[in-house]
Specification:
With 118 residues, the chain is mainly α. It contains two helices and two strands, in the order ββαα. The protein has a two-stranded antiparallel ribbon. Strand 1 and strand 2 form a beta hairpin. Helix 1 runs antiparallel to helix 2. The longest helix is centred in the N-terminal third of the chain and has 33 residues, at 22-54.
């Protein structure tokens, strides 16, 4: 932010600096990126399962898709290991909304109505 003390002279207020631990920043950033990748991976997996169940894919496409999803899951496991993260570390708590990722990715979550799903 700046102000004018004298005509024609601009005075700048000191910038605020945040002291951050480099390792903590790297860990948290990698956690965020891996969380987003895992979210997209799970969404693609659900969409793929839906398309398979509807019969939209050929046998060859189902085979390729299955192998691709398995490789992606293995890659995510390897990346989590590399950064010292567990799958539960990627599941952000969104407060009253619950968690970002379902607790069991193999089981689709059933949306609850305003009455709590009763």
């Amino acid at each position: 932010m700046s102000s004018m003390d004298e005509p024609g002279r601009e005075v700048r207020s000191p910038r605020l600096r945040i002291e951050a631990d480099r390792e903590a920043v790297e860990r948290d950033l990698s956690r965020l990126v891996l969380t987003l990748v895992e979210l997209v991976r799970q969404l693609v997996e659900r969409q793929s399962v839906r398309r398979m169940e509807e019969g939209d894919l050929s046998d060859e496409q189902v085979e390729v898709l299955g192998l691709t999803l398995m490789r992606l899951e293995d890659a995510m496991t390897e990346l989590c290991d590399r950064f010292g993260l567990s799958p539960s570390d990627l599941n952000l708590d969104l407060g009253p909304l619950g968690t970002l990722l379902p607790q069991d990715p193999g089981v689709p979550e059933v949306p609850k109505g305003p009455d709590g799903g009763r």
